[in-house]
Amino acid sequence: MSLPKIAWIGLGIMGSPMSENLIKAGYQVTGYTLEQEKLDRLAAAGGTAAGSIAEAVRDADVVITMVPASPQVEAIAYGPDGILENARRGTLLIDMSSITPQTSVDLAKAARDKGIRVLDAPVSGGEAGAVEAVLSIMVGGEQADFDEARPILEALGRTIVLCGPHGSGQTVKAANQLIVAVNIQACAEAVVFLEKSGVDLGAALDVLNGGLAGSTVLTRKKDNFLHRDFKPGFRIDLHHKDMGIVTDAARNVGAALPVGAVVAQLVASLRAQGDGGLDHSALLRAVERLSGAQV
């Protein structure tokens, strides 16, 4: 059987390498984004650049979206130029953006009225995970749609799990972002503590990562800490958005997040100081400032 035709909307830090991995896996990918250089990159990788959302999705069997937040998902999904008005009945829409669970639930309901099926399928793993096709993908939706989407998702990630009905993927992603932020903050505090104590930081992080303190966060972000390299793999601006999602969702279900609330404020503070465009490992800068460094 021939592979389904895919439309990809949103070719940012994550979307570009993910769409390219689908092309490498043999899928025909038509993409749309606002930046011409990203469309040129897709074309150079063997994809097809579209001039609009409507053009991208018109003949697609599967539409995949990867945009920054709920307002952007709503902007590309709804309205006369959006996905729901221009995709064919029976199309499978896989939203891989990180948005509020309620936005995903609302999108699935609106799409059902148009005969379009929806999965929310946010990811974890950052830019490196996207490039290496080893993302963790947490999915919400119907089992049959998940089964249909699985071969596509397997070209993008390594851990792929249906977590429950619509919105469940986003709920699990919110928990993921809580864990990641708290972990980065703990690592950043440890880095400052170690450096001020005169310890060989590289050696210390190596041995810590081999024990119970080790984590994927420390593995992925160790060089960022060592070299103060905060080129964005996942921007503070986006993690600020995600911490808002998880704190709001937790409030709605009556879950207390005392440590998460503190880290959310630290992320917000870093963003307010002009570091929103940096990688979230730049939480180290906030700890350094609190410890008296001029950064």
Characterization of the model:
The chain is of the alpha/beta class and 295 residues long. The protein is built from 14 helices and nine strands. The chain has a six-stranded parallel β-sheet, sandwiched between helices. Helix 9 (168-196) packs across helix 11 (216-227), helix 9 crosses helix 13 (258-275) and helix 10 (201-209) packs antiparallel against helix 11 (216-227). The protein is globular, with a radius of gyration of 20 Å.
Identify the notable features of this structure and list them briefly.
295 residues; alpha/beta; 3-stranded mixed beta sheet; globular; 6PGDH_NADP-bd
Secondary structure topology:
Blueprint: E1 6-9, H1 15-24, E2 29-32, H2 36-44, E3 48-49, H3 53-57, E4 62-65, H4 70-77, H5 83-86, E5 92-95, H6 101-112, E6 117-120, E7 123-124, H7 126-132, E8 135-140, H8 143-154, E9 157-164, H9 168-196, H10 201-209, H11 216-227, H12 236-253, H13 258-275, H14 283-290
Parallel strand pairs: 1-2, 1-4, 2-3, 4-5, 5-6, 8-9
Antiparallel strand pairs: 7-8
Overall pLDDT = 97
Distance between the termini: 57 Å
What structural class is derived from the secondary structure elements? alpha/beta
Helix share bin:
40-55%
Keywords: NAD, Oxidoreductase
Domain 3-hydroxyisobutyrate dehydrogenase-like NAD-binding: 167-286
Family: Belongs to the HIBADH-related family.
GO molecular function: 2-hydroxy-3-oxopropionate reductase activity; NAD binding; NADP binding
